[in-house]
Automatic annotation (TrEMBL):
Assigned keywords, A-Z: ATP-binding, Coiled coil, Kinase, Nucleotide-binding, Phosphoprotein, Transferase, Two-component regulatory system
SMART domains the UniProt entry points to: HATPase_c (SM00387), HisKA (SM00388), PAS (SM00091)
Organism field: Amphritea balenae
Protein name, per record: histidine kinase
Domain PAS: 51-105
EC number assigned by the record: 2.7.13.3
Length: 453
């Protein structure tokens, strides 16, 4: 290409000036870009520092232990909580095998973490960390840490110290046990209070058969002395006439005829005492055994007999019970309920000139029912909704704890039954008790078994 020749120096200078202008413009643009990039880098660095500071503050404020490991189990990052537990700075922990921080019995479990992470994260695995003050129980969660290509690069482990949690659970269990014990004692004390109100009637009830047995034993003692006298004479080989005369004097023929009736009467009185003691023991026992079928009529009649014997006022009883009626549950507890219900009805009729109780019981295909109606003044409407509240009572101070109906309601509910109280249109209060014929827990177990089958 032929060399371009400028016609004069002015044209060459103009071209040179344009070139310099262009270079300067490029330099300005480049400098502006550099300044812009510098600003962006500084902004990014500031954001990175803020993010790093935020992450550091989060990690340092965590009460849970944080450990980040590589695929070989070497520690890459820890938080302040781990430093405080182990008493070691992060510089001492980095690049150290994590398994060395775990108590010996749990190291194999930790060694299996990496294989488990290929299937699913590890949740709430209990291990013990070797701390500066001894072993520290942890609930460990472990998740896989992946790189940009989605490959496993290590593990992230978070452990929650169980010391405070276990202590809280222990305190909660202790409080629950104490509350349950207090409830059992409260129930038992109320039962004993109810039993105390029946002592006079029961003592009178026991006195009759005991007196009968006592009298019969005295008669048997006299007859025994006569028989011993006669058999001593026989052993001495006295004449037959003398023996006959002695037999008539001792009236042995009458004594022998009376022996069977005396023994039968004594056995009958002893059986009556045994029945009364059994009912008392059944009433006063805690009875935590399994529910069984019991004679509901016997429970009702015994409770009614005790209350009426102890009562100082004449009460007309209209009792309607079937020939045979069985219920399912703890007979002693249901006995306590019936006693409380009858006692409350009798107390409500204390000032009634012609006190009367209507009592009935029966059964349907699914339940056993019991009703009790008094002819007392009834309850105000505002009290009906509170009669089962603990410590609520309409009796004067010192005459009632307010626990009888509350405990009775709890007993019936635990049996899967219902207890209700309402005013009768013609006056008085009606109490209705319903008990299921089958144990609700056993019915639920049967259904569950059928569903599983």
């Amino acid at each position: 290409m032929p060399e371009k020749k400028f016609t004069d120096h002015s044209e060459a200078d103009a071209i040179a000036d344009e070139a310099w202008v262009s270079v300067i413009q490029k330099m300005d643009e480049t400098y502006a870009d550099l300044v812009h990039y510098q600003v962006e880098i500084e902004q990014k660095n500031l954001e990175l520092e803020q993010t790093q500071g935020f992450l550091d503050s989060v990690q340092s404020s965590m009460s849970d232990v944080l450990i980040v490991c590589d695929k070989q189990g070497l520690i890459q990052q820890v938080n302040t909580a781990l430093e405080q537990l182990t008493g070691k700075a992060s510089e001492q922990l980095l690049d150290q095998p994590f398994v060395e921080l775990i108590a010996q019995p749990y190291r194999q479990k930790i060694a299996d973490f990496q294989n488990q992470l290929r299937v699913q994260p590890v949740r709430d695995c209990e291990v013990e960390l070797v701390g500066q003050d001894g072993l520290v129980p942890l609930a460990m969660n472990c998740s896989p840490r992946k790189d940009q290509r989605g490959r496993m690069a290590g593990m992230v482990m978070i452990g929650r110290p169980l010391g405070e949690l276990q202590r809280a659970y222990k305190e909660l269990n202790q409080a629950h046990a104490e509350l349950k014990l207090a409830q059992e004692r409260l129930i038992q004390s109320e039962k004993m209070a109810s039993l105390g109100r029946l002592v006079a009637g029961v003592a009178h009830e026991l006195n009759n058969p005991i007196s009968f047995v006592y009298g019969n034993m005295h008669a048997l003692q006299r007859y025994t002395e006569k028989l011993v006298t006669y058999f001593n004479a026989v052993s001495e080989n006295r004449p037959r006439s003398e023996l006959r005369e002695l037999r008539e004097d001792l009236r042995l023929d009458k004594a022998i005829r009376d022996l069977n009736s005396l023994v039968d009467g004594t056995m009958e009185g002893a059986d009556r005492v045994k029945d009364i003691v059994r009912d008392l023991r059944q009433f006063s026992s805690c009875q935590e055994a399994e529910k069984t079928r019991f004679d509901f009529n016997h429970v009702v009649t015994t409770a009614l007999h005790w209350i009426i014997k102890e009562s100082n006022q004449p009460i007309e009883i209209d009792l309607h019970l079937p020939n045979k009626l069985e219920a399912l549950g703890h007979s002693g507890q249901i006995h306590q309920v019936i006693v409380n219900l009858i006692q409350n009805a009798v107390d409500a009729m204390r000032d009634q000139p012609a006190a009367k109780l209507d009592i009935g019981a029966g059964e349907t295909a699914k339940l056993v029912w019991f009703t009790l109606r008094d002819n007392g003044p009834g309850l105000p409407d505002e009290h009906l909704s509170r009669v089962f509240d603990p410590f609520f009572t309409t009796k004067p101070v010192g005459e009632g704890t307010g626990l009888g109906l509350s405990i009775s309601y709890g007993i019936v509910t635990e049996h899967g039954g219902k207890l209700s109280i309402h005013n009768h249109p013609n006056g008085g209060v009606v109490v209705t008790l319903e008990l299921p014929k089958q144990d609700p827990d056993k019915v639920g177990e049967g259904r569950s078994g059928e569903e599983n089958a």
